Structures are given as C-alpha cells and as structure tokens.
C-alpha cells in the first residue's frame, strides 16, 4: 500500500477533492428538494386553510414504526382519509365512533378531534 501512494500525482488529489465536493453537493441538493417539498405543502395548507370533516372512524391500524393512524370515512363512497395521531388519541377513539375532525389536508396533521353526538 505504501508503494501505491508514492505513485499518486497532484491530479489524483484534485480528483479526490472534486469527488468529495460532488458528493457534498448531491446531498445538499437532496436536502434542498426535501425542504422545498415540505415548504410547498405548508404553503398549500396556509392558502386553503383547514378542512373540517364529520365522519366515522373505520378500522384503524398501527404501523411498524410506532405511528398511530386513524382512518376516517370520506365524503364519497369508498374514500378513506388516514391521519396520524398521538398514541393517547389513538386509544381514546374506538372503531365506529362519530367524530368531528379538523385537519390540514396536505400536511396530514390533525388540529382537533372531538366526539360528535349530533351526527345522524
């Protein structure tokens, strides 16, 4: 190995530095694209405001990453709206519970979740 490094010329070092800079720029661009994606979703939520939905909780599930997701029946037939919630909220509401949920459509964030006893 010692003998191989003796044969390095100045352009080998320049190529190594260029590769390192290219890798850094690649990850920087990926980070910027992810930031723009989330920024765009928040911008849409700010423009459109929040959605309010009177619905019934249909079968819920917990993912393997410890995310707790409630599934609500949508306005149209066979439409399902899945929103992540906290663990406490997940266990508080049973399947078939009538609820009024206020959420951000694009960010998929629940703002409030209340029982709706007046729902027909």
Describe the structure.
The chain has two domains: 2-47; 50-115, OB fold (Dihydrolipoamide Acetyltransferase, E2P), CATH 2.40.50.660. A five-stranded antiparallel β-sheet has the order 3-2-1-4-5. With 120 residues, it is α+β, with helices and mostly antiparallel strands. The longest helix is centred in the first third of the chain and has 39 residues, at 10-48. It has helices spanning 2-6, 10-48, 87-92; strands at 51-62, 68-73, 80-85, 98-104, 109-115. The protein has three helices and five strands.
The gyration radius over C-alpha positions equals 25 Å
Q: Kindly give the count of domains.
A: 2
Highest CATH level, the class of the largest domain: Mainly Beta
CATH topology of the largest domain: OB fold (Dihydrolipoamide Acetyltransferase, E2P)
Q: Gap between N and C termini, in Å?
A: 79 Å
Largest sheet: 5 strands, antiparallel
Across the major sheet, the strand order is 3-2-1-4-5
Number of strands: 5
| Average predicted confidence as pLDDT | 85
Count of DSSP-assigned helices? 3
SSE order, as H and E? HHEEEHEE
The CATH architecture of the largest domain can be named as: Beta Barrel
Q: What is the helical fraction, as a range of percent? A: 40-55%
Low-confidence stretches: none
Instruction: Label the structural class.
Output: alpha+beta
**What is the overall silhouette?**
elongated
How large is the share of residues in beta strands?
A: 25-35%
List the helices and strands and how they pair.
Blueprint: H1 2-6, H2 10-48, E1 51-62, E2 68-73, E3 80-85, H3 87-92, E4 98-104, E5 109-115
Antiparallel strand pairs: 1-2, 1-4, 2-3, 4-5
